[in-house]
Structure formats: structure tokens, C-alpha cells
From TrEMBL:
This is Dienelactone hydrolase domain-containing protein. Residues 18-242 form the Dienelactone hydrolase domain. It comes from the Eukaryota. It comes from Caenorhabditis remanei (Caenorhabditis vulgaris). Gene3D superfamilies: alpha/beta hydrolase. Transmembrane segments: none annotated. GO terms for molecular function: hydrolase activity. Pfam families: DLH (PF01738).
Amino acid sequence: MTITSKHIDYKDADGTVFEGVVYIPENAKNSKVPAVLVFPAFRGITEFEKDKGHQLAELGFFAFVADVYGKGVRPTERADAFATMGPLVSNRVEKLKPRLFAAFNTLKTFSEVDQSKIAAIGYCFGGLCVLDLARYNAKLKVVVSYHGTLKPIPDLPLDPILETSVQVHHGDADFHIAKDQVDGFHEEMRTRQADFVFVSHAKAVHAFTEPEADSFNAPGIGYNEKAAKRSWKATLGIFDEVFA
């Protein structure tokens, strides 16, 4: 299938400029198609997220790799990435939320997108992003988090999540996401009456989906091929379900 890709600029309510990447499948020329919003891990948009966008387009989805940091903000060093991410994580309502909805609202402007069939997936920091969209009751059919932070949004009422299915893939050996986060997430989803699936992948540590993770040389960070393949297969399975 022929895939068209292009970089696009967009803004949030504060006027901050972002640069995302869209991947448009050939079948979108003749009819509207389901769309998937992709939120990157802590380094921002890398080749990993771009590859995911391309893979999704090859499967017939309109894919939009979102930029949460801002145009030209692409940290290459781990410390710089955490310094960029930190203020957004520490103020998820005032700083992060507008950036999440800027990406979501931009995706909905494309004529190729079936507005009733939109999903969001995210890795690491991006996993937190998609879970937050579900918490805000964005009009998404499903969100999928891979090794994402699970902490609830401080002081946000635990309103029901009634329209968005939630799928979480967690590394069972991931000590970066502590057991209290896992237990707390389950309690939150129950309280919110959410349709959720939580998969704990044996022997997988943090960043288990990313082939480059082993090169980070960081404790508790590493690629797990089996977990990566299983989580992706489960993702495509729930897409088949909710987009039917």
C-alpha cells in the first residue's frame, strides 16, 4: 500500500507551535478511515514512533505521531529529555492537558479521518498521555499504554470512563512503575467503571517495546521481543474489536 507521510505544524491554546507527523494510507483517498494518535516516549518523536506510524498506515489506519514538547525540541541526552518532560508531568492539568488536546483536535481536522473511530497509543511518557486523555473523557474508542506511568491526575475527580476502552501493557519486572502504582491504577479504573484490560508481561522491564532500549545503559530498562510482539498483537486485536 502506498503511504503518504508529511510533517505538520499545529498550535495549542497558548500558541505553542508543535510539529507532528501524519501517515495517510492509500485507502483514505476513497473513504474515511479509522485513525490512531501516537504519543512518544520520554525523548519525544524518534524513529521508533515514526516507524509505528508507518506500520499503522500500512494496516489502513490514518496515523498521527504527536509532538508534546514543541517544534524543534528533540532532546538527545537522557538528562535533557527528563528536564523537558518534568514540568509537564508535574503539572498535568495546566501544562500537559492543552498539549494533549491540541494533538487530538488537530487529528480530527483531517478529512480522511472517521471521527467515530479514533484511538490513541503511547509509550512510557506517552502511555501516561493516552491514559490522561481517557481520564478527561476525550472521544476516543480505545487507548493503549505501553510501560506507561499509571499515577492518577492529582485532585481530578474520578468520573466514570464510559466511552473509551483502556488497554495497558506493563512489564512485570518494571521497578520504575512501582506496585503501588499498579494497585492504585486498578482501583482507579474500578472506581471509574472503566472497560479496562491490564496485561503484565513476564520478565519484561521498562521500555520493553523499544529495540534501542538496551543501548540506554540504564538500570531496569531493556527490550523484550516477546512482550513487544504480544502487546502489539493485543493492540491490533482491540482495534479490530472497537472499530468493527
